[in-house]
Amino acid sequence: MYEEYVIMKVYLQLHDMLEKEIKILEIDTSLVVKKLLELWAEKTFDGDIRDTYYDFIERAHCKREECERIFRLREKWDKNIYTIKEKRQLLSDEEKVVVKEEHEVEVTDAWAFSKTLTMQGMIPIRKKEKHRISFKHEGVVFDIDTYKWIPTFLEIEGPSWEVIFKWVKKLFLDKQEQLVWWSRMVFDRYDIPYIYCD
Question: Are the C-beta atoms of 95 and 22 separated by less than 8 Å?
């Protein structure tokens, strides 16, 4: 079947990593971009992203913070990525950084892959759309995200909390409000409901 063919054609380049990230709220996009370029960060993406989250039917109503594993299909103009995120350790007051383990695989056909997930007993549970501008510098990733009705925020992902907070200070953002959990927390912060699938 075509869906099975797509599964076989996925680029099996798994990116297994321990993710540490922090979100800086209500940034001035032009100032952050200017500073990143001054610090020789490389711009890697500027476009719209559509995320669809899946789960098995019996866990479809599980609250986000209660889920040990998250399944996401991301559609970008240049590629489609299927990601499984797993909790690796609890958030610590000392680090103040959320830590998750990610497994990613590039998918050739998002529509066919979604059909395959459905065949395996999974259903779409929520969707998100945003505009993202991305930069990277020596293993650190900077994502500037804009959702409808939510002020633009910056997400910094790096190998350690020391590196992350060093960059927060370099960008003069240490006085800005920060969140250290999932994007759901950003929605909650502004009383914006998640878009759940029917």
Answer: no
Q: Which tokens hold the place of 189?
A: 């912060």
* Residue 194: C-alpha distances to residues 78, 128, 191 (Å): 26, 8, 9
Instruction: Quote the domain boundaries for residue 40.
Output: 2-196
Residue among 93, 86, 89 nearest 71 (CA): 86
- The total of structural domains in the chain comes to 1
Q: How confident is the model at residue 88 (pLDDT cuts 50, 70, 90)?
A: low
Q: Are 170 and 36 in contact (CB under 8 A)?
A: no
Among 103, 88, 79, 87, which Cα is nearest to 15's?
Answer: 103
Query: What is the H or E stretch that residue 126 is in?
Result: strand 122-137
* Domain of residue 118, CATH code: 2.40.320.10
Pairing of strands 80-87, 150-158: unpaired
- Say whether pLDDT at 143 is over 50: yes
Residue 152: pLDDT band with limits 50, 70, 90? very high
Whether the CB-CB separation of 100 and 88 falls below 8 Å is answered with yes
